[in-house]
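Hi L.,

As promised, Peptide methionine sulfoxide reductase MsrA:
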Amino acid sequence: MSEYKKAYIAGGCFWGMEDLFRTRPGIIDTEVGYQGGENENPTYKHHPGHAEGLELTYDPNVTSFKAILDYFFRMHNPTTVDQQGNDKGSSYRSAIFYQNDEEKQIAEEMIAVVDASGKWDSKVVTTLEPFAPFWKAEEYHQDYLEKNPNGYTCHYLRFEESYI
């Protein structure tokens, strides 16, 4: 039996990210929520400084933190500051909340690979932020696009080819 790990990322509206990640090999569970902000127990109506984020539970025997970041950098635009699609503001920033030095190093390496790839017209602006408490979002946000299949999303796979 494997020991599952967790990864914490933000890349715009959490609904679209969750919908794309839920079907990835090795992803055991997804939760949307708020991370990296100023208040405890944030809500959708009051989450100053928090990013709309995603907690991924994954099986490291099937996927890796590096593979998760590879997909992350292909399913959102990591070159826009505080914006994805029509969503604007720090809640929609691109961020990786690293839990240890190894994750930070992998994230730094992936950013360098993405920048060197030339796939984007601008450099990556994804922030690397030390892990902060992850606050689960309200239940109506969980699995939102499964509950509302015609709901808004600005996430899609921009590049089929892996960076790694």
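The CA atoms of residues 49 and 91 lie 7 Å apart.

Thanks again for sending the construct details.

K.
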